[in-house]
Amino acid sequence: MKKLDLKKMKLPLSKKKYQKLRDAIKTRKVKWMDMSVDLMYAYQDFWRFQHQRNINNSIDD
Fold first, then answer.
1. How far apart (Å, rounded) are the C-alpha atoms in residues 26 and 32?
2. What sections of the chain are H helices per DSSP?
C-alpha cells in the first residue's frame, strides 16, 4: 500500500476516502499527528455516523 498524501485529501470525506484513510491509519501509514485538525474531526464525524447507522440497523432487525 502506498503512502496516503494527506495534503491532497479534500473535505468532505466520502465513503471511499474514509475507507482509504481508515486503512492507512490501521496499517500505520498515517499517524494522527500528521493529520490536520479539520481532517481529524471529519474522520471522527464520519466514524460516528457509520457507527450510529450500524447501531440503528441492528435495533431495527
1. 11
2. 15-26, 37-60
Predicted TM-score (pTM) of the model is 0.68
CB atoms within 10 A of CB 51: 10
Whole-number Å distance between alpha carbons of 13 and 6: 12
Q: Are 11 and 39 in contact (CB under 8 A)?
A: yes
For residue 33 the three cell numbers come to 499527528
Work out the pLDDT band at 3, boundaries 50, 70, 90.
Answer: low
Closest C-alpha to 41, from 55, 3, 4, 49: 49
Tell me the C-alpha distance between 40 and 32, whole Å.
7
